[in-house]
Each structure stands twice: as C-alpha cells, then as structure tokens.
Amino acid sequence: MNVSYRHLAVGALILGLLALFVGNPKESYQISIDVRELASLIEREEDHLTVDELAAMLMEGKHRLRILDLRDSASYAQYHIPAAERIGITQLMDERLLPGDTTVLYSDG
Q1: In 1-109, alpha helices (H)
Q2: Cα separation values, 55 from 18, 23, 66, 85, 90, Å
Q3: Burial label, 76 (beta-carbon count in 10 A; 0-12, 13-18, 19+)
Q4: How far is 36 from 38, CA to CA, in rounded Å?
Q5: Which of 108, 59, 48 is nearest to 83 (CA)?
Q6: What whole-number distance in Å separates Cα of residue 103 and Cα of residue 66?
Q7: Mean pLDDT to the nearest integer, 35-52
Q8: 3-state SS assignment for residue 104
Q9: pLDDT, tens digit (0-9, with 9 covering 90-100), for 47-82
Q10: Can you give the pTM of this predicted structure?
Q11: DSSP characters over 78-101
C-alpha cells in the first residue's frame, strides 16, 4: 500500500508543476466576432432585450451579466443601471468579453 501512496504523491507533484507552466486557460482564450453578422442582428433588433427582460435577468441572478453603458460620461453620471460599466463605443473592440458572460450594451441610440 505504501507504493500506491508514493505514486499518488508523485502524480500530484507532476500535475502541480504542470499547472504552474500551463497557466490559466481563461487568460489565453480569444473570441472572434463576425462584425457583419452582429450588425445585421442589431439592425433587425433580434438581439434586443426589453427593460422587463433585463430586470428579470438581474433579479434572477442566474446569468453572468456584464452591462456596458455606451453613453457619454455626463449621461452615465446622471443615471445608469447600478451594475453597468461606462465604456466608450470606440473602446469596445479592445474589451475582453468572456465566453460564459452575457454582455448587454446600452446607449441612447
């Protein structure tokens, strides 16, 4: 029995060392977005949420929501959804969007 514990210990050590060198897989994950397809969805309003739908999602807490407010700083300061982050539309392409998150964009336009 002592030999099997030794094998487990060696295996655990190897896995631990491997984890140090491999790193976090979420950090290297990249999402590609078809901009034309996204623009088409927006134009047809197939991706839109109503206020009630967003409120329900927030209250349920089941979704990993990331809410991005694309309005100007003054509008954001005057009123914004409490969980929202203010970001300029030109900065949107540089944002890291995680695959498991539901990202909600809102603006005045």
Answers
A1: 2-22, 25-28, 35-43, 51-60, 73-78
A2: 43, 37, 13, 16, 27
A3: middle
A4: 5
A5: 59
A6: 5
A7: 79
A8: strand
A9: 788 888 888 888 888 778 888 888 999 999 999 988
A10: 0.61
A11: H---TT-EE--GGGGGGS---TTS
Q: What is the pLDDT of residue 76?
A: 92
Task: For residue 107, give every residue at least 6 positions away whose Cβ sits within 8 Å of its Cβ, in sequence order, or none.
Answer: 69, 70, 71, 89
Q: Which helix (H) or strand (E) holds 67?
A: strand 65-69
Query: Which own/partner pairs from 51-60 qualify as long-range (CB within 8 Å, at least 24 positions apart)?
Result: 54/81, 54/104, 57/102, 58/83
| Per-residue model confidence (pLDDT) at position 7 | 47
- Residue found under tokens 């790193």: 23
One-letter amino acid at 97 equals L
- Token pair in block for residue 60: 């349920």
Q: For residues 13-32, give the mean pLDDT.
A: 54
